[in-house]
Amino acid sequence: MSPSEREIARLRLQMGEIDARLLALLNRRMEIARAVGDWKRRNGFLIFDPIREEAVIADLIRRNAGSLSERAIRAIFLEIFSSARAEQGVLRIGCAGGAAGLLAAHSRFGASDRFRLVRSAAEGKRLLAAQSIDVLVVPKQGLLDLPTAPREASPALPPCWTIRGEIDCPSAFPHSRAARFGFYIVTAGGGQPLPPDVPEPHKAVFFLAGASRESMDRWTRRWGGCWIRADARKRGRDPAREPESAALWEVSVPPPPDAVQACCREVCGDSAWIVRLGTYAIASVTCNEQATRQ
After folding, report:
1. Model pTM?
2. Which one of 9, 20, 108, 143 has the largest count of C-beta atoms within 10 Å of its C-beta?
3. How does DSSP classify residue 264?
4. Domain that includes residue 160, residue range
C-alpha cells in the first residue's frame, strides 16, 4: 500500500469510527423519542411539534462552531426529527397545490413521514376534521378558497384549525400561481401561545373578511405587514371591481388583540371581522410585495 493509499485508509477509518458513534447516539435519541411519544399520547399532544423543532434548530445554529452551514444543519435535523416522529407514530401529511405542494412538504418533513395529495384546501380541511391526516400543507392563497363563515360564526373559526408554520415555494416551481406566496402548515384545533424561549422572528397570520381594498390599504399604513388576497381572476371576477373581499394579513410584530379588533371596526367598518389563525417562529420574515397588489 502506497503512502497515499495509507493516508486515505486512515481518514476513512476515522470517519467510520465517527459514523459508529453517531449511529449509537441516534439510536439512543430514538429511544428517548419513544418515551416522549408516550408522554404526548397520555397528555393529548400531536406528535408534530413545530415550535419545539424550530427552537432546537435555532439553538444548534447558535452553537455551531464548525463549517456546517445553517442550511445543512436544518436539513440534517429535519430528517432526524422525522425519524423520531416515526418512533411515536406515523405523521400523515396532506399536500394541496399539486406537485409544488408535495415537493414543498418533502422539503420540510422527512422520509419517515407519510404523504398524500389532496385536491384542495377544502378537502384538506375535511380530512383534518375527520382525523384522516395530521397536517395539511396548503398554498397560502388556497386558504381563501374555503367558504367564508358568516360574521356570527367567526368566533368559532380559530378552534377549527391553526397555522403552525410556513414553507417557501419550491425553486422548481418559480411560476406556479398556486404556490407563488408559499405554503402554510396547518393542523386541527386551536393554537397555543408561543413560549418565551422560542427563537425570533415570529409571524402572525390573521383572516379578515368584509373589508374593502381601500380599508386594507389604510390598515397597512397603520400596522405594516402584507396582504394575501383571493385571486379574483380565478373566480371569474374583475379584480378592480371587487368591493369587499377576504384576505390574509401577515405581520411580524402583531398588535395586541384588543387593538386589532378596534382597528377592524374603525378602519374596515362594522360589517368586517378578523380572527388570528396562527403565530409561529420562522427562520426569516419576508413579505411578498406582490401580495399587496392582488
Report:
1. 0.84
2. 143
3. I
4. 90-293
